[in-house]
Fold:
Amino acid sequence: MVVKQEAVAAKAVFDVVVVGSGAGGLVAAVRAADLGLSAIVIEKEHRYGGTSATSGGFVWIPNHGRPGNEGDTREAALTYLSRVCQGDFRQDRVEACVDRGPEMVRYLDEIGIALDVIPFPDYFRDEPGATDSRMIGARELDAKELGEQFFTMRETFPAFRLFNRYTLDLMQAFAFAQRPRGWQWVAAKMFARYWLDLGWRRLTWRDRRLALGAALIGRLRKAMLERDIPLWLDTKLTGLIERDGKIAGVCVARHGVAMTIEARHGVILAAGGFEQNQEMRDRYLPVRTDARWSQSPKGANMGEAIVAGESIGAATESMDCCWWAPSMQLPSREVANSDAVHQMWLDHKHPHSLCVNRLGLRFVNEGGAYDRFGLAMIEDQKRTGANIPCWMIFDATYRKLYTAGGILPSTVVPDRRIPRDWWDQYLYRAGSIEELAGKIDIDPATLAGTVARMNEFAHTGVDLDFGRGQSSYDKFFGDPRHGPNPCLGPLDKAPFYAIRVDLGDLGGKGGLKADAAGRVLDRANDRPIEGLYAIGNSSGAPWGNAYPGGGSTLGPATVFGFIAAGHIARRANMG
Ligand SMILES: Cc1cc2nc3c(=O)[nH]c(=O)nc-3n(C[C@H](O)[C@H](O)[C@H](O)COP(=O)(O)OP(=O)(O)OC[C@H]3O[C@@H](n4cnc5c(N)ncnc54)[C@H](O)[C@@H]3O)c2cc1C
Structure:
C-alpha cells in the first residue's frame, strides 16, 4: 500500500496541469505535448469532454483559410468585430484570436484533426466584414477508434440525437426540423445504418457515429492517447498552490482523496464557467435565473476554477454575461421523474409562431440569433418585469410542420401521443387564442391583438414592429417554401399552443481576466500571475457581451488553449 502511494506521488509532477477536459483544455494538452512538455488533464466528472462534447462542436475562426473561406481577411474580421463586440471586450484578446486562430487550424489539420467549413451566416450578417464561412467543425469519427475511451466520453445533447439514439449532424438536424423534399430518405438511411451494424449493436445502444462536439472531443482524445497524455477522471480542482510568487501546482480531490499535483511550468484553468452554481448566478447575473435552465451538464461547471483564481488575487471580468440560449423544459421521456431542457434554437424562427412577454406583447425579432433573444429577454424583464419566463405561441399549421420544444411535428408525433399529464402543464392547447391566453395568465384581448397584428405582417411580408425576416441571417433559417416572408406566417388555424420559454444558456461568459497570452491577471495591479492561465469559460470572453457567430465560444476556447500552451513552452525553454 505504501509503495502504491509513493508511486502515485512520484507521478504527480508535470510540466503543465490542465484543469478540465473540454475542447480548449484538450487542445492545450496536445499542443503542450507536441512542444515537448509533459502534460496531464484532470477532470472532476466520471466522463470527459464537458459541455464541449455535448455541443455542436463548431468553432468560429475568422480568416482560417480552409476551403470555402476564400476572400475572408484579417481586416474584414476586425471590422466585423469592431461593430458587434460590446461590453467588457478587450481589443488585445480580440486581435490575438483573429491572428492566431488560422495557425491553430493549420496545426490541428497537421495532427489529423481537419476542420471543415459549414456554410453558416455570422450572427450579424448585414454588418460590414460578415461572412458565411467562419464556422468550422471536425469530421465525423468512428467511435471504434477510441476503444474503451468511447464509453467514458460525455454524450451529445439529446437534441443532437433522434429518438435519443441516432446521431444527427447539422444537416440532418435541419432536415428533421424543416423536412424538405426527400427527408424520409435521410431518416431511412440513418435507421438502416444503425440497425444493420450488428456487431456494435451487441456492444451498446449508443451510436458509433460521432458527429459535432463528440467528433471534436473524440478526435482530441485520440490525439491525447497517441501522445500518452494522462487524463485523470474524478479528480476535482480544490485550490491552487503558490510558491515563490508563482503558481506551482494544484490541490485536488482524486476519488474524494486530497492530493497535490505539481506543475513545473504552468497551470491552465479550462474548467468551464459558473453556470451550474445557483449562488454565483444569483450574485453576478443581471436578472434572476435558474441553473436548471442552463444546457450545460448538470452539476459540472460550478465555477470552482474561477473561485480558486479569485482566492489568490486574480481579477475577473464579464461576470454579468452568459452565452444566452433560451430554453424550454419538458419532462424527460427517457428518465422517470426528470426534466429535459430543450434549447430553443430553431423553434421560434419558423412561420406561424411568435413570442410574447407575460403582458401578451412581442418584445423581439424572433428570427434573430439565440444570444440576442436572451439579451432582449433581459432588457424586457428590466423594463416590464413581465418577461422571464416568456411564451412561444403557435398554431396547428406550425404544429404540423415544425418541431416545438423537442416535440416532433404532429405528422410524426400527433397530439394523441403526447402524455396526458403534459397538457396544460408543459404544453398548453386551446381552441382559440383568447382561451389559450386564459390558460397561461395573459390578458386575452392583448394576446389576440398581438396575434392579429402578426397575421397582418404575415400577409404583407413586413414585420413593422421588429423586422423579422428582413436580414439575411433571418432568411437563412426561414422556411424557403413559405412566402412572401419565409419567417412570417399567420397564426390562424386552431388549435393554438403555448410553451414556456426560460432564459437558458450554453455556459458562462464571464470568468478570470486574462491577457492576450491567456495569462490570468492580478486584481491588484492588472499584471500577469506567473504560471497561471485561464481559457474557455473559465476566462472572460474576448468578445465581451456579444456572440459574433456560430462557434464563438469554442473558437476562443481552443485558440487560447493553443496560445497558452505555446506561451508556457517558450517560457520553459528559456529556462
Ligand atoms: C447543446 C449545446 C450546443 C453548443 N454548441 C456550440 C457550438 O457549436 N459552438 C460553440 O462554440 N459553442 C457551443 N456551445 C457552447 C460550448 O459548448 C461551451 O461554451 C464550451 O464547451 C465551453 O468550453 P469550456 O472548455 O470552457 O467548458 P466545458 O467544455 O464545459 O469543459 C469544462 C470541463 O471542466 C470540468 N470541471 C469543472 N470544474 C472542475 C474542477 N473543479 N476540477 C476539474 N474539472 C472541472 C467540467 O466537468 C468539464 O468537463 C454549445 C453548448 C450546448 C449546451
Notes: The chain has two domains: 1-165+212-323+509-575, 326-503. The domain at 1-165+212-323+509-575 is CATH 3.50.50.60 (FAD/NAD(P)-binding domain). The longest strand covers residues 257-269. Residues 1-10 have pLDDT under 50 and may be disordered.
